[in-house]
Structures are given as C-alpha cells and as structure tokens.
Amino acid sequence: MIRNETDGRDPCGSFTLTEVAVSALLMLIVIWALLSAFVSAKRSDALAQTYLTAQQIARNEAEQIWTNSYSNIVSSTNVVLTNTPLENLQGRLSRSVATFTNSYKEISITVEWTAPASSKRQTLINYMILCDTN
Predict the structure, then answer these.
(1) d(CA 123, CA 108)
(2) Residue ranges of domains in the chain
(3) Alpha-carbon torsion 110, 90, 53, 48, what sign?
(4) Strand, helix or coil at 97?
(5) What is the pTM of this model?
(6) By the 8 A CB rule, do 116 and 46 touch?
(7) What does DSSP assign to residue 116?
(8) Interatomic CA distance for residues 80 and 53, integer angstroms
(9) Distance between CA atoms of residues 74 and 86, nearest Å
(10) DSSP assignments along 10-78, one per residue
C-alpha cells in the first residue's frame, strides 16, 4: 500500500513563500552585521593611524630636544602641524618646560588633533626629564 502524505510542502520539492521570506530576512541580518563590523573596523583603523602619527610627531620633537643644548630648551605653544597627516585634522604641537633646579628640566610634549569623522579633540602627552650634564 502506497501512501501519499504531505507535510505542507509542494510534492515537487519547491519552497513556500514563507520559507523564502524567512531565509531572505536571515541573509539580510547577516549581511548587515558583516557591513557594520567592516565599518567599525575601518573607523578603528583610522583612529589607530592618527594616534601612531601623533606618537611619531612627539618622538620627532623629543629627538629635536635631545639634540639641542640644555640651555636652549624652552617652551613652545600651539605650533600648527603642517606637512603631516594631522594637518587636515587641525593638529597642534606644544611643549612646556619646567626647570626645577639648575640640574634638570621636566618637559611635556603635547600633540592635539581632531579625531577623524568626529569633532572630538584627541590629546597625546609625552613626558621626559633631562639632566644638565655640564
């Protein structure tokens, strides 16, 4: 005896409209999640690149300080950064020098910029202490 029972499916093996709609919705959710992750990663990469650029600018400033004579190390404020990737992000560099005795100076190097795709100001501060070797 042969039975021809159906479980709500087309006997030809095709999908119902509900099954197609649910699978399309699931695909849209997965694609949206992947695109969101990609956009977030791209933003994070841009922030990391600007932070690394700021670190390099601060290191270059520290190198310039080390090559100066001890008596010529003075403060500088709000130097606009040009010819750097931070130029388009309103980048600024400043240096403050505090002389505690005649034997050493504490120097802080500050790099400021506007974060990409936002209006938040970012700040990187490096500190160094120099001793007079004379």
Answers:
(1) 12
(2) 17-131
(3) positive
(4) strand
(5) 0.68
(6) yes
(7) T
(8) 15
(9) 24
(10) -TT-PPPHHHHHHHHHHHHHHHHHHHHHHHHHHHHHHHHHHHHHHHHHHHHHHHHHHHS-GGG---EEE
Please state, for a pLDDT cut of 90, what percent of the chain lies above it. 22
For residue 83, the 8-state DSSP code is: S
Residue for token pair 């750097």: 84
Q: Which two tokens stand for residue 126?
A: 């490096």
Q: Is the separation of the CB atoms in 47 and 116 below 8 Å?
A: yes
Our CA angle for 122, 123, 124, nearest 5°, is 130
Q: Which two tokens stand for residue 117?
A: 């795709």
Is residue 85 helix, strand or coil?
Answer: helix
Instruction: Summarize pLDDT for 53-69 with one digit per residue, the tens.
Output: 889 888 988 888 888 88
Q: What is the 3-state secondary structure (H, E, C) of 67-82?
A: HCCHHHCCCEEEEECC
